[in-house]
Specification:
Elements lengths: L4 E9 L3 H11 L3 E2 L8 H26 L12 H32 L7 H9 L2 E9 H7 L6 E7 L2 E9 L8 E3 L6 H25 L3 H23 L1 E3 L4 E9 L3 H8 L4 E6 L15 H4 L2 H7 L10 H16 L2 H15 L7 H20 L31 E3 L2 E3 L2 H27 L2 H23 L15 H6 L5 H16 L6 H25 L2 H22 L2 E2 L2 E2 L6 H39 L16
Antiparallel strand pairs: 1-8, 1-9, 2-8, 3-5, 3-6, 4-5, 7-8, 10-11, 12-13
Helix pairs in contact: 1-7, 2-7, 3-6, 11-13, 11-19, 11-20, 12-13, 14-15, 14-18, 14-19, 14-20, 15-17, 17-18, 19-20
Length: 631
């Protein structure tokens, strides 16, 4: 849900400006409207300092995690000294890396020629004996060697021949690639490389030591960000009455209005609180229950909702968890995910617990859906018609969504379930659209989404009655949902859909005259017909992903146990059991990762595309970010 906001307008005596802003920052509840055009040297300088500090902070955090370095935090260096040392080490590391790369090239060039002293070449040159180094492939060497009067093959590597051409005073060029060797011996180059590697190792150790100062950097960043926010607020306060009065605009949560008023009364200021208008850019602060709050990061991946619309988070949160569970749909995989999330919750800082708790909950949903769909690492849990070798002969009632083989083929209850769940989410989305239009607009504007809802219900009843995609067959335990819908009075679907169609034709666009609404209604009907089919059938991916994961897991099981199967029985004492275990680990590991990616992406798509489209989601609001002392 979105916290109601109040718009604060303030006029303040200019001499109180600094004291007021500092106190306002300590109060920490007013979202100050910053003028994006306002700038100052102080603000620009602070932004640069923050940028550098954030870069160093992230780099040291990444280095510590990558190298598994965990040192006690130290405070004997200032943040400036840490940043300076880090940048110096960066330069040294880059220089050493460059020299190492060059030295490796030298070694590669020298190795085919063996270890010799370059000074000896110079001494021979002084005595008018010239040596030139060449390389070419074997075929070419056979062609040219007879034409070289004085030549010595030094080495061969692969299909390349390395040879010397020797002459007194002058050496004629040969048709091969001449090699210009570095002026050092192979031993010297290897020694220099060793020294450079040691130097790099020392730099690496110095980086390790700097990871002990991330807390110093974190505190420094918080201080600088406070200063930046304060400066941004300061330069956004416009002066008037020859600079004697400054003004400030901001936003205050509705429940904090009284506290802010008491605070303002201590200053020589005039202020007023107003309700926001649609023309304002209003920051949004979300407040949801413990369960829905876990899904706020997912909502923010798309955008925060506009202030004048419902927060979709509590409406899509249970669906998202269910969708993930239906897609993952394996008790074994779900148990692994829930365990990983639970362990991580006990290890990570408090600010990350929301994410690890979400992982745990998604794992629990995967366990429940996996049991309903009768899958444990791709193997059936309970014995159902057509599926043998289950872990348990009884208990099939715990798997009401399990595929069942019948005389006419295989029945997948997950198909009609996916459609029912999808239609329900779409109807909720249309209902939210109707509420937004009625609450923030007029009742007349809400008739169009109500018409769409009515037509969707009528079409759904029709599809159930013709048993489209086994919708009429579907039942959950003793609740025959499909049959109950099919027993509705005859032609009720046409009455409901017709009512919706009539509303759609006359209320599709209240701003237009009645003469235009009919053709616009035909266009709206076309959009409805194509949209509802596309959106509804899109939810079949819930069934498809769950089925694909289960089949892939079962395939890995079959491949693995083929190695130890004899006369229809598993031979656990077979030496091939080792390969069976390795195939199971590798196969299910791959399936787990692939399923995890798909099971997050596809519910995300159903939420942001199908659901948000029917909500008519606007979004784009800035996040409520009060001027606060973060230190």
């Amino acid at each position: 849900m979105i916290v109601p906001m109040k718009k604060l307008s303030l006029l303040l005596y200019h001499k109180e400006k600094e004291t007021f802003l500092t106190s306002l920052q300590d109060l920490g509840v007013v979202h100050v409207v910053v003028n994006p055009e306002a700038s100052s040297e102080i603000l620009a300088e602070k932004q640069l300092v923050i940028k550098d500090a954030e870069r160093v902070f992230r780099a040291l955090k990444h280095h510590g995690a990558a190298e598994n370095v965990s040192l006690p935090q130290a405070k004997d260096l200032s943040a400036g000294e840490v940043i300076s040392r880090f940048e110096k080490l960066e330069n040294e590391r880059d220089t050493v890396d460059s020299r190492i790369q060059a030295m490796r090239k030298n070694i590669t060039a020298l190795e085919p020629w063996g270890d010799f002293d370059p000074d000896s070449i110079g001494k021979l040159t002084d005595r008018d004996i010239i040596l030139r180094f060449y390389e070419c492939n074997e075929k070419k060497f056979e062609e040219i060697k007879s034409g070289i009067p004085s030549m010595e093959v030094v080495s061969r590597g692969g299909s390349t021949v390395y040879f010397l051409v020797i002459g007194r005073g002058k050496v004629e060029s040969v048709d091969a690639d001449e090699v210009l060797l570095p002026s050092m011996s192979l031993t010297n180059a290897q020694k220099q490389l060793e020294n450079l590697e040691q130097e790099k190792s020392k730099i690496h150790d110095s980086f390790n030591k700097l990871t002990a100062y991330t807390d110093v950097l974190s505190s420094f960043l918080a201080k600088q960000q406070c200063g930046r926010d304060l400066e941004a607020a300061r330069i956004s306060m416009e002066g008037s009455v020859e600079g004697r009065v400054v003004s400030l605009n901001g936003w205050v949560p509705h429940d904090k209005e009284k506290n802010v008023a008491e605070f303002l009364n201590d200053f020589p200021a005039w202020y007023t609180f107003e309700n926001p208008s649609p023309d304002d850019t209003i920051p949004v602060k979300l407040t949801n229950g413990k369960f829905s709050m876990l899904f706020e990061p997912i909502a923010k991946m798309r955008s925060l909702p506009d202030y004048f619309e419902l927060d979709p988070t509590p409406f899509f949160a249970p669906f998202f968890a269910l969708f993930f569970g239906l897609c993952f749909a394996d008790v074994g995989y779900g148990a692994i995910l829930a365990t990983l999330g639970f362990i991580a919750s006990r290890k990570v800082p408090v600010k990350f617990k929301r994410y690890t708790t979400l992982v745990t909950i998604l794992g629990v949903f995967a366990i429940i859906c996996g049991m309903f769909l009768n899958t444990f690492f791709g193997h059936p849990i309970f014995s159902v018609p057509g599926y043998e070798n289950a872990f348990f002969e009884s208990g099939a009632f715990l798997a009401p969504l399990s595929a069942v083989k019948t005389e006419t083929g295989t029945y997948f209850p997950a198909i009609p379930l996916s459609l029912y769940v999808g239609i329900l989410q779409l109807l909720i989305g249309m209902g939210m659209r109707a509420y937004n239009r009625a609450h923030y607009g007029t009742i007349v504007h809400a008739i169009d989404p109500v018409a769409t809802m009515t037509m969707t219900i009528g079409v759904t009843i029709f599809l159930v009655k013709i048993n489209f995609m086994e919708l009429q067959t579907f039942s959950l335990w003793a609740f025959p949902l499909g049959q109950m819908i099919a027993l509705l009075p005859k032609n009720i679907e046409w009455i409901i859909a017709g009512s919706g169609l009539a509303l759609l034709m006359f209320f599709n666009n209240p701003e237009k005259g009645l003469g235009l609404r009919l053709p616009l209604g035909i266009y709206s009907l076309y959009n409805f017909a194509t949209g509802i089919m596309g959106d509804g059938l899109s939810y079949l991916r819930l069934f498809a992903l769950g089925l694909a994961g289960g089949l892939l897991g079962a395939a890995f099981n079959q491949i693995a146990f083929m190695l130890v199967m004899k006369d229809g029985a598993v031979q656990l004492a077979s030496p091939m059991i080792i390969f069976t275990i390795l195939i199971l680990i590798a196969g299910h590991g791959i399936n787990f990762v692939l399923a995890l990616i798909g099971c997050f992406v596809h519910p995300l798509r159903l939420t942001f595309v199908e659901f948000y489209k029917n909500v008519d989601f606007k979004g784009g609001a800035p996040e409520y970010s009060p001027l606060a002392n973060l230190q």
